[in-house]
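Supplementary Note 3. Input sequence used for the single-chain structure prediction.
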Amino acid sequence: DVIISVAAVSENMDYCYRNGTVDEVLYIQSGEGKFISNFGNLHVKSGDYIVIPRGVIWQINPTDTVRMLVIESAGPVETPNRYRNRFGQLLEHSPFCERDIQLPELQNPITNKNECLVKVKTQKGIQEYTYSHHPCDVIGWDGYYFPWSISIHDFEPIVGSIHQPPPVHQTFQANGFVICSFVPRLFDFHPGAIPAPYPHSNIDSDEIIYYSKGEFMSRQGIQEESITLHPMGLPHGPQPGKYQSSIGKKHTDELAVMIDTFKPLHVTEAALGIDEANYPLSWMD
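The predicted structure, written as discrete structure tokens, is reproduced below.
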């Protein structure tokens, strides 16, 4: 259903890329640049989610190194059902709206006659094509199939007097998983509320959290771009001392992306090679 990885782009791509097997979501952790596609260009900046349907031809040209979380989905990536009416419009209680969505803008004509290499990802690997012209040299397009972006900074958090369940953070849905955004927000404001979330065991999903920026109320020793995996069925929650230290606090400045998958994730050898072996011991006093 999903492949999760990280990437860094430090120089202009000298080829175009087309994923023929999955839809993609790029969460831009840091850096800035230009996302160029055969539908037009998007400005790339920290905090952006770029949603790329399969088959779109694209490349990224950074002005400085662009670091990103990459999510590849076997099915279409959509806005959550709970926030749409029967016509597909986002409802008034949605944490974002259509005005927050950025669409690609057509660029000036590409006048050079240079050939262009296009790398296409298939089920069997990468296949290369050489175009006699640049595939992004287009004058227009029509329809409802295109790349688009939305900033995590435009996600308006839903808060309450007591702890709100994780679905209030949902930003996208896809076959077999959801993507949620944790953003700066007010803590629970009931006089007896403890802001730190209670321990829990996800019995229906594996939980991935990508820590983007800020101070993380429930964890300590977490750095930017840290990734945690809590498999379904294993209890987890705030570390010792975090309950007490959260009492009286009014807001959090954390920024993180959570991915809940409804089937168990398989960890790659590369990821196991950088595993923090002592992480499970962080709940011990």
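The chain has a mean pLDDT of 92. The radius of gyration is 20 Å.
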